[in-house]
Specification:
By secondary structure, the protein is of the alpha/beta class. Helix 1 crosses helix 6 and helix 3 packs parallel to helix 5. The protein has a single domain, classed as Rossmann fold, CATH 3.40.50.720. The longest helix is centred in the middle third of the chain and has 16 residues. It has an eight-stranded mixed β-sheet, with helices on both faces. The chain has a two-stranded parallel sheet with strand order 7-9. Helix 3 links the parallel strand 4 and strand 5. Helices cover about 35% and strands about 25% of the residues. It is built from six helices and ten strands. The radius of gyration is 16 Å and the shape is globular.
Length: about 210
């Protein structure tokens, strides 16, 4: 596949680029500044203003799937994820690209699939207040994605860590993964690659956990 990856130098995006290249995909990595990228014949690095649809249109043109791994590390109010998603979806629409995979977070959604303690205590009373700014940003990015006519899949992940890949993960469609507390970034990247080629996941929220 021809894949365009936003957030390619991030901790999840870096795994995604490496795994995609290992699997034989053609990768366009979109970066915001000067970054050292792997020298690989199947890799094209583009430096662009990711918040400008006109600037990134060439990066998504011809892509079989676009993967948005952009998030904010700011603890205060932020719109980074939302602004990036709006720019990416507008750029995709302008060049006829269809398939979008968006990373989000499962901490905001307390509902089916959660055990009682997670659903009524951990998420609403601990995680939502603690992560409210980034979760609000991700909620708006999700809505911006759903408002498009693209073939989107929203992937909701729990706490991420840098542990070695387990080589397996659990997913749930349009519901939470029971006891889905955390996942390694490496396993999350593997899940994203699998979903990019899975038409059954289009217009669904896929929750994933290790």
């Amino acid at each position: 596949m021809r894949l365009t990856i936003f957030g390619a130098t991030g901790r999840t995006g870096g795994h995604l680029v490496r795994q995609a290249l290992t699997a034989g995909h053609e990768v366009t990595a979109v970066v915001r500044g000067q970054h050292a990228m792997t020298d690989h014949p199947q890799l094209r690095a583009i430096t662009a203003d990711i918040m400008n649809p006109d600037d990134i249109a060439m990066a998504v043109r011809g892509a079989d799937a676009v993967l948005d791994t952009i998030g904010s590390r700011d603890k205060g109010p932020t719109t980074v994820a939302t602004d990036a998603t709006l720019a990416i979806t507008k750029a995709m629409a302008s060049v006829g690209a269809r398939r979008l995979i968006l990373i989000s977070n499962s901490a905001r959604i307390a509902g089916p699939g959660d055990d009682w303690f997670t659903r009524f205590v951990v998420k609403p009373l601990i995680l939502r207040p603690l992560l409210r700014h980034s979760l609000d940003d991700m909620a708006a990015a999700e809505q911006a994605t759903r408002d498009t006519e693209l073939d989107w899949t929203i992937v909701r992940a729990p706490q991420l860590n840098d542990h070695p890949a387990k080589g397996s993960y659990k997913t749930a469609v349009d519901r939470n993964v029971t006891f889905g507390i955390r996942i390694s970034r490496e396993d999350l990247a593997a899940c994203l690659l699998e979903l990019a080629a899975d038409p059954q996941s289009i217009h669904h929220h896929i929750n994933v956990a290790g």
